[in-house]
C-alpha cells in the first residue's frame, strides 16, 4: 500500500531520539512539532529551530505550520513567516532532505531557551486548488526558498 501522508525522521537525526509528530486529542487539527535540540533564541533575533523530521503528502496538499499558542503566550515568541507553508514537493529535496525548520522570532528583551522535545509549532494538512488555466510545470531543485530562484 502506498503511503499517503505522514512524518519521517531525516537521516542525519536518525539516532537522536526524535519523536514523530502526533495529535494530542481526537479533535486536534494539528500535529505537534518538537525541537530536535536545545536552541537559544536571542532578543530581537530570528532563529532556525530544527525539528529533525520531514513530511510527505499527496500532490494537492500542503502542511500549514503555525506556532503553538503556549509558545506565543508563555514565552512571547512568534513564527517568523507565519503561517508557514510546506509544499508536497519539499519532501526529500536535494538541499536538506525536506527537513522541517521552524523560523522563530524573539521580539522580547531576554533570551528564550527552547529545549529538545519542547513542542514549538503545529502542522495541519490542507488541500489546495489551482486555476483552470494553471500551467505550472517547474520542479523543485532545493530546500527553503528554492522556488523563488
Automatic annotation (TrEMBL):
<feature type="domain" description="dUTPase-like">
    <location>
        <begin position="18"/>
        <end position="148"/>
    </location>
</feature>
<dbReference type="InterPro" id="IPR036157">
    <property type="entry name" value="dUTPase-like_sf"/>
</dbReference>
<dbReference type="GO" id="GO:0046081">
    <property type="term" value="P:dUTP catabolic process"/>
</dbReference>
<dbReference type="InterPro" id="IPR029054">
    <property type="entry name" value="dUTPase-like"/>
</dbReference>
<dbReference type="GO" id="GO:0000287">
    <property type="term" value="F:magnesium ion binding"/>
</dbReference>
<dbReference type="InterPro" id="IPR008181">
    <property type="entry name" value="dUTPase"/>
</dbReference>
<dbReference type="Pfam" id="PF00692">
    <property type="entry name" value="dUTPase"/>
</dbReference>
<dbReference type="GO" id="GO:0004170">
    <property type="term" value="F:dUTP diphosphatase activity"/>
</dbReference>
<comment type="similarity">
    <text>Belongs to the dUTPase family.</text>
</comment>
<keyword id="KW-0378">Hydrolase</keyword>
<dbReference type="InterPro" id="IPR033704">
    <property type="entry name" value="dUTPase_trimeric"/>
</dbReference>
<keyword id="KW-0546">Nucleotide metabolism</keyword>
<protein>
    <recommendedName>
        <fullName>dUTP diphosphatase</fullName>
        <ecNumber>3.6.1.23</ecNumber>
    </recommendedName>
</protein>
<dbReference type="GO" id="GO:0006226">
    <property type="term" value="P:dUMP biosynthetic process"/>
</dbReference>
Amino acid at each position: 500500500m502506498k503511503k499517503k501522508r505522514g512524518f519521517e525522521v531525516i537521516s542525519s537525526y536518525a539516532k537522536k531520539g526524535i519523536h514523530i509528530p502526533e495529535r494530542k486529542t481526537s479533535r486536534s487539527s494539528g500535529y505537534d512539532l518538537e525541537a530536535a535540540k536545545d536552541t537559544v533564541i536571542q532578543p530581537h533575533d530570528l532563529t532556525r529551530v530544527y525539528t529533525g523530521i520531514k513530511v510527505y503528502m499527496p500532490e494537492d496538499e500542503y502542511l500549514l505550520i503555525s506556532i503553538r499558542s503556549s509558545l506565543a503566550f508563555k514565552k512571547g515568541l512568534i513564527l517568523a513567516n507565519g503561517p508557514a507553508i510546506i509544499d508536497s514537493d519539499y519532501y526529500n529535496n536535494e538541499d536538506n532532505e525536506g527537513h522541517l525548520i521552524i523560523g522563530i522570532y524573539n521580539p522580547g528583551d531576554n533570551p528564550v531557551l527552547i529545549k529538545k522535545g519542547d513542542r514549538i509549532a503545529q502542522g495541519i494538512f490542507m488541500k489546495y486548488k489551482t486555476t483552470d488555466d494553471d500551467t505550472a510545470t517547474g520542479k523543485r531543485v532545493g530546500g527553503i526558498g528554492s522556488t523563488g530562484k
